[in-house]
Amino acid sequence: MADRRDFLKASLLGASAMAWAGQAMAGQTMASTSAKTKQAGGAMKPRVISTWDFGIAANQAAWAVLSKNGHALDAVETGVQVPEADLKNHSVGRAGYPDRDGRVTLDASIMDADGNCGAVAALEHIAHPIQVARRVMERTPHVLLVGDGALQFAQEQGFKKEELLTPESEQAWHEWLKTAHYQPSANSEILDYGRRDQGKGSLPGGKDNHDTIGMLAIDAQGRLAGACTTSGMAWKLHGRVGDSPIIGAGLYVDGDVGAATSTGVGEEVIRNAGSFLVVELMRQGRSPQEACREAVMRIVKRRPHASKDLQVGFLAMNREGEIGAWAIQPGFSYAVCDAAKQDGLVPARSVY
Ligand code: GLY
């Protein structure tokens, strides 16, 4: 069922995107040999991938760095700032939907191939949490700063304190308060259409919750890096932190193996150390696609309700630049960008 749906969607993407979709479909064999980025002579072809359709524009910003022989770490930090700044995007950065108290709290992490990493969680009033995460990585002996401490650090670093709740997001929050029905949710065809059909959507506008952007890149020197940033679940409890800023959950990079990132219901990703699991599976010899599928199945096995109301997706890249993805529900897509094509979008395969 999911296979057919993926194929139909791929058809709609147009001929050029079909190359990428074909790569995803090739993963059915579970032995993807597709699109290695190693060039003759040992140099790597740079490539960047990221979650959801908003990843296309984010990738293009990252590509501006990679295509000039830039560092993968700079590329991912630059790329994810595009959705962080996008006022139409209500799941990342400024204009993100607030928590149930009306506060926009942001989570972000960044990691390089050598195990260096930094993250912020429940950070308010700073437009680009990914920049603060990188400062945590490079200018402190720590990995994760949270809440007021993260804000204090950001201000000490010269970041401007701003209001991130836009009138549109505030209005959506007021709408939600009328019922205050809370069901952690993430984008998938089934879940979003389900909510709309039932007329009790937790997100105004229905199919609007694109969730986290996770981005992985490999540069011309073969260096891997990843970044992940989100405003988290809309209407969450104040203080709730998802998978995105948790190294090993929402993001993990190991230069000897590969990198992984996640999207969807963060609690399930944290419970299973999801991105670390994907990288470890690649270390054991799985392709990126196989590793993502196995990590998803680990979650599904523990959660009998997964078919009805749970979405988690993983995206991975190995040190050869091969890529893969898998999700519980249909609807997860990922953007792919390299020298051949800068606006590819691939529907991920799914369990259901
Ligand atoms: N995956 C984003 C979150 O759960 O916050």
Secondary structure layout:
Layout: H1 2-12, H2 15-26, E1 47-51, H3 55-66, H4 72-85, E2 106-112, E3 117-123, H5 129-139, E4 144-146, H6 147-156, H7 167-177, H8 189-198, E5 213-218, E6 224-230, E7 251-254, E8 258-264, H9 266-271, H10 274-283, H11 288-302, H12 306-309, E9 312-318, E10 323-327, E11 333-338, E12 344-347
Parallel strand pairs: 3-4
Antiparallel strand pairs: 1-5, 1-11, 2-3, 2-6, 5-6, 7-8, 8-9, 9-10, 11-12
The chain binds glycine.
Keywords for this entry:
single chain, 352 residues, 2 domains, eight-stranded mixed beta sheet, 12 strands, disordered N terminus, binds glycine
How would you describe this structure to a colleague?
With 352 residues, the chain is α+β, with helices and mostly antiparallel strands. The chain has two domains: 1-41; 47-350, 4-Layer Sandwich (Glutamine Phosphoribosylpyrophosphate, subunit 1, domain 1). It is 36% helix and 19% strand. It contains twelve helices and twelve strands. The chain has helices at residues 2-12, 15-26, 55-66, 72-85, 129-139, 147-156, 167-177, 189-198, 266-271, 274-283, 288-302, 306-309, and strands spanning 47-51, 106-112, 117-123, 144-146, 213-218, 224-230, 251-254, 258-264, 312-318, 323-327, 333-338, 344-347. An eight-stranded mixed β-sheet has the order 4-3-2-6-5-1-11-12. The chain has a four-stranded antiparallel β-sheet with strand order 7-8-9-10. Helix 3 packs antiparallel against helix 4 (72-85) and helix 4 packs antiparallel against helix 5. The protein is globular. Bound molecules: glycine (GLY). Glycine (GLY) is lined by residues 211-212, 230, 232-233, 242-244, 263-266.
